[in-house]
Design goal:
heterodimer, A: ten-stranded mixed beta sheet
Amino acid sequence: MRLRNVILLYRVRLRVRAVQELFAVLGIAVGVALLFASQIASTSLDGSVPTLINGVVGNMRLALVARSPQGFPEGLLGEVQQLPGVRSAMPVLEQRATVIGPRGQEPIVLFATNAHFAHLGGPLLKHFTAAQIERQHAFALPLPVARTVGLASLQSAQLQIGARKQPAFLGAVLTESEVGGLIDSPAAIAPLPYAQHLGGMSGRLTSIFVRPAPGREREARNGLLRLAAGHLNVQAANADAALFNQAAGPVNQSALLFATISALVGFLFALNAILFTVPQRRDLVEDLRLDGYSRRMIVEVLLFDALVLGVVASLLGLALGDLLSLALFHVSPGYLSFAFPLGSLRIVTWQSVVVAAGGGLLAALAGVLIPLRADIFSRLALEPGGRRSARTGSYAVPIAGVLCLAATTAIVVWAPKQAIVGIVCLVAALLLLLPSAIRAMLLAFGCLTGSRGGAASHLAFVELRSDSNRARSLAIAATGAIAVFGSAAIQGAHANLQRGLNSATQAVNSYASVWVSPEGPGNLLATTPFPDRFGPTLARMPGVRSVQAYRGGLLDYGVRRTWIIAPSRTVAQPIPASQLVSGDPALAAARLRAGGWAALSQAIAKEHHLHVGQAFVLPAPRPQVFRVAALITNMGWPPGAIILNAADFARAWESSDVSAYSLTLMPDATARQISGELGRALGRGSALSAESALQREQRGYGTSHQALAGLTQITSLVLIAAVLAMAAAMGAMIWQRRRRLADMKVDGFGKGILWRALLIESGLLLGGGCSIGAVLGLFGQLLLTHALAVVTGFPVVYSLGALAAISNFGLVTVVALIILAVPGYLAACVRPSIILQD
Amino acid sequence: MLQLSKLVKHYRLGEEEPVRAVDDVSMSLAGGELVALYGPSGSGKTTLLMLIAALLRPDSGTVALEGRDVSALSEQQGAEYRLRDLGFIRQTFNLIPGVSALDNAALKLLGTELKPREAHRRVIPLLEQFGLGKRLHHRPEELSMGERQRVMIVRALSTEPKLVLADEPTGSLDSRRSREILELLTGICRDRGVAVLLVTHDPQAAAYADRVHALHDGRLVDYEPEHVLASADAN
């Protein structure tokens, strides 16, 4: 068939079904938007850290990196430059800091190097050629950060590094034209001597980036290893990107899960919308066949329909998805920013565009062709009503559903790592079992109404058993089922995780009644070191009974940036009982206090094949041999945690620095009093603040809640999309049935009874689908919670979130019914005379 | 039983002359009588049916069933009237696909106080009487066109109406099945004492009636069967 003819045929038909096509376009667009937005969220998170790292390292290949923020002597640079195989080397000092301006404060990472080395680095460091920064002893900030804290070029600001707050000069504000994609990174740059002065790190560096001579990388690496002597890390220049990928794994997994569920809801949304146009297309197929069109020609005509629908809807969906990602999906998991320079960068990859648009096209193709396959390939059906074939009564579909359910159970028990596959199996089971479940529900409802029900409920029952609405009814029920399933599964797992994270936060903070540590949102894990010279002052403060040093930090161990927790030997419970996975709690605590023992997260132990009692070398600045005292959860930090005592930490880190003081108070003293006294006691310039354990807990809950808030937003969005899809599809189904309603009115049925019947029918369908979704959603909760606990080692608290399932089920059903009440009433008001027009 | 007195219904379409769909029609129908209303398409037959079924209000004149004026009923009263006193057999097959003949036939009874099971019990003898005893649980798609029309007739008769309005009940049937349906309708009149108003433009169908009225441009005119049959044969 000639393309011009196909286009003409399409144009002619479009005039009479423009509204239905518009619905279909909107339906697919919503699906594409959900998929696209969740993809952008995922790629933005993945790309944020690597973009910044590339902005710093440029074409450097190797790095010599300190294992603690205290760094190593600057003199090492000369030795590195002398190594065989090294073409060039760039000194870098990297410090976590907080910039304070008139309008607020923001955590940043301060990168510093020498101006004459800067040309070796990436686009960020190349700005050291800006002569005024070098001369004026100033730092530079990206424009968004400067704007947030209310700073402009050549203004004074305050920088907090460690426990010190001091004035600093903002020499330049970097714009997008200067740093490109790095504009959204929380990175500041400064000349090396100035940054060393600000951080109290004179003569020290945190890393040296190396560019080997061509073909001599191995030689350069070996030289670096010799220099490091087991006290420094020798790694790829962009190794932080791999560490970040590992840390962001659980977030990415949940993003993938959301993308899958969003795609499914989107596809069902689209299918519901396309079913609006099926009657017209069915008539078209019949007309074309009567006119002598071959099957191939009919398929060509329908394919063109699907193509136009898919392309227009995908374009609209991509635009909507872009808006969604800006409005809702931009929140990055704040807890990861404690260890990685996370920015608000939005990264849209061509793969995301292809996946979302491809999904839209596929939905359009499936939605147009699948409902019509019988019409295309069956013999001509000229007799009205003779087109539908009898019910097949096949058992293959429910059996396949049961098998999928069995596969999910097997994954829960034996392979929780494959949680995504398990969820896909569970969704397949849901869709395959749905028709049988709806049939069983109708059977039960039929028995009930047969003896006791009223006319409206029986009318609803009769209508639901009708073949004419079967495909659309199932599509509506499936939409509700998937949405409630997804939201119940995710919300339940989310709640279990939140409870687990809260218990971990509570456990760590209970080491003291009052904490004194460097202030700022970036130090919630108490990993910022500062010199141990405030202890005696604190001990003399009124109301303070005792002061203990707490040490903590982040240490790269294998592919994990682990959280090191080092409480004083005197704390009551160095290993929180709620976080213990394996080992005797009393014995483990005693060993930890004795020294030389450490409690490891289960995932770290598994990675290094360690069991309780075994020895291992902790790759600290001074590597030390420890024995495994117990296995613990990851304490809420995705890469995992290691607990040792504060004295062991000082030995292994070769530093007496502390990262917090844990205070025990007199019975009549309060944290507020201590906080008030602290400023006077420590003097101006001190960035230490006092917080009660409860205040720190609340801050911890807030951070984990913020990290998981994105999940809640996406769940809500999926639910809203499902409610709209169900209400629209059900409304259209009811609206298209006005002729039959008119017929019933001719038989004497009043609008009240018809309206009730429509609402009961809708309620049954929506409630049936959603309740099946809720039941399997509980199974999904179990699967996800188990996977989180076993695979990532998160401290989850198991609890079946039946309330979340029931509330989602109720919410979707009731809201959809409320929306439906209006078209239902209008349809019930149809004039009976429409079926008797002369 | 049914008395139409000087019924008038005009439609106004824009600025044009009003269409006189029903113009001064008076006629009566006794219980047990089958009266055919013959007329070509557009003659006003369906408008007259809608006036009788209280789906339209006349501009003037009255429709009385057993002395009760039904031409000015409220929506609720009109529904009640159609449910209790009227049976409506349509030309189109308004059976619900995928649902058994029994359920389809009992549908009208659900508007009364009867429970679904009682409604089923009530229509089963009727379905058996109409030769559908072995087809109770068959779906419309599995029934012949004649059987489907019989299910529609059972639905109309299920509430034991006094008056049955049959709008082209044989319009989609072949001549043998048409005869069967018309014989059934005649039987209903005789055996149940129900008044049947058969609206048709088929002269063969009109031949089954006790009386035939012809409608032309909304007015009752003399029916001339020989002339009509001759034109039908010529066609």
